[in-house]
Amino acid sequence: MTTTPPGPSPERRPGERPPGEHEVKGHSFRDVVFVDDQLVEAEEAPAPPPRPARRITWPKLLVMPALLALVLLATYLWIASLTLDPIERNSLGDGNVELRLWQHVQLTAISTFWVLLIAVPLGIALTRRRLRRAAPLVTALANIGQATPAIGLLALLVIWLGVGPSTAIIGMVAYAVLPVLSNTVAGLRAIDPQLVEASRGIGMSAMGTLTKVELPLAVPLILAGVRTALVLNVGTATLATFGGGGGLGDLITSGIQTQRMPVLVVGSVLTVALALFVDWLASLAEALLTPRGLEA
What we know:
Elements: E1 21-24, E2 27-30, E3 32-35, E4 38-41, H1 58-80, H2 86-92, H3 96-126, H4 135-147, H5 150-161, H6 165-189, H7 193-201, H8 206-236, H9 249-258, H10 261-289
Antiparallel strand pairs: 1-2, 3-4
């Protein structure tokens, strides 16, 4: 004897069978499926889970590059409509703008590479049991670099190391190491200790636990620190001109000293556009590298 669930049943025409019921050689059969190793009628089977949302949508992929392209195009058309004097032509011609932009990109890339090479391993080491007590002291030392005004720090480094791109890179690394270091430490400390103990319980080594459990869970905070460091480096690289490092800061200081507005505008617009472009690239990397299970 079977019972029917409460509630109104859908009306069917005479002779029409319920959904999922078939007749084969005079015998009635109903479609069944297995759900979690249990036999369930087809009409009672749960709907398949919805597809996960796309990490990178078309607006996120296209809006920022299109906006930056429009700003750069408008700046180019404005400069092209002006009659430049010899000083302005000397500053903006003969590939000088491309050279300064490439120097700026190099300064940002090299300094960020060294920031990652220093801050991420150091942050991991400071969360291990043997060096955990040294974390406040190391973080305070890293905070000195960012608390010191960038121009003052660069001036001290020039006095100590002399003029050149390497001096500017050292100053940029000292200025941007704190966000990556603090976020690495915070991300690893925020992990539930029970997850670490569970990984050890199933036989994982310390290195396996670090690479397969701790670092993937700390990725969002680490990437947020890297994104902050990238934008900081783009801005700090403009001060490299005072240490002989080149970059777009040469155009900005030249425009201020000679009182040439086109030169100043080109240097400033390119610096802002580069910072926004780097931040956009970092946001895409952050979306792609964050594990699916950690997405909000």
